[in-house]
Amino acid sequence: MDDIVKQALAKWPNVPSCTGWLMLDRRGNWRMRDEAAQAGGTPGTPIRHEALLGFINRNYDADERGQWYFQNGPQRVYVELGYTPWVVRLSANADAGGTLALQDQAGGAFEPAAVFVDEEGGILLTDGSAPPRVAVLHDHDLEVFSDHATLAEDSMSGEFRWNNQVVLPLQAIRRSDVARRFGFVPSPAAAGA
């Protein structure tokens, strides 16, 4: 968390939180949701300002109930999640013999410990932290993923080869079970943050 945010929290500790105004979409884009977007149930307008994106990413965290938020100075802005709290991009570095790398929407490295596939073909990965972070793979990277995976005929099992060192079995998961299983709240507004 930024020092300026910590100072604002100390100076104004009782600023009410807000919900519904910020979304992390399925592709890792931060979106501002004005009243019209909230009323219409649309994702809102993508945030493109690099400094603001950096500020959001540095001050993004979860509370004890599994609700993700952006600490905007003294105000906690709860985040609507398009799927999971993290979205990762997968790349293969051609200069390094095809070495794979995963990076989350905040720019941090993500080391996979387990891989899941949902009934819609979405790929989810968890890391080795405690509790584990769960991230959905950006859909533009499914081809890179498939280059390093073997799928069974049911498309819900198989294995993923991570940098030719680790073979991770693909585990089936229902999309409707993801939030409960990994302990996060996809819509703090609906949960009454």
From TrEMBL:
Family annotation (Pfam families): DUF2944
Protein name as catalogued: DUF2946 domain-containing protein
Species of origin: Paraburkholderia aromaticivorans
